[in-house]
Structure formats: structure tokens, C-alpha cells
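Hey,
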Amino acid sequence: MPLQLGMKIMSLVITVIVYGRMIEIVIYWVFSPIPFATFTHSEFSQIGKNFIKLFAAVLLQGGFMILCVSIYSILVRQHVMEVSVNGGWVLMGYCAVLIITLASSGKMSKKFLGTF
């Protein structure tokens, strides 16, 4: 019972993180013409340059998230057939690691591109 409840809560957290990050990417994509319009003016061109860095970091974050979820699916596929309490705890551990990596993917991508 606690294992099943924990897995439901973790799957909900994973879903919220993934959807939230994807909505962030869409918002950056939709409003990208506004900062790009600042390139023509010399005083405001720095805004456009900073936006490109942030936009690249958000897109890289999406790539990291896809990589994390695909590695997670490979690891889970190996333990799905194992029907035991120990196998359930292993899957719960994989879910916890996935939550941590998804939550830190934004920091990692911004650190990688040098935009803090």
C-alpha cells in the first residue's frame, strides 16, 4: 500500500515537472519575436543577446529532459517483470532519481551555457 501510494505521488510529480518545463519552452517560443526585435536598436541589443542565451538554455533543458526520461524508461524496462517488494522499491528509487534529475535539468543547462 505505501509503495503504491508513493509511486502514484511520484508519477504525478514527474508529470507536473515535465508539463511545466514544456509549457516554459512554449512560452519562450511564442514570445521570442519581441526580444529579437531589439537587435536593430544599439541600446537594446543586449536584451536580444541575453534572450538568445536563455532560449538556448531552455531548449537544452528540454533535450536533457528527453535524455533523462529515455534513460529512465530503459532502466524501468529491465525491472518491470520483477514482481517483488524489492523490485518495487528499486522502481521507486528510479522515480526519485528521475524527479531529482528533471528538477535540476534547468540549473544544469543554464550552468552549461553560462547564463545564471
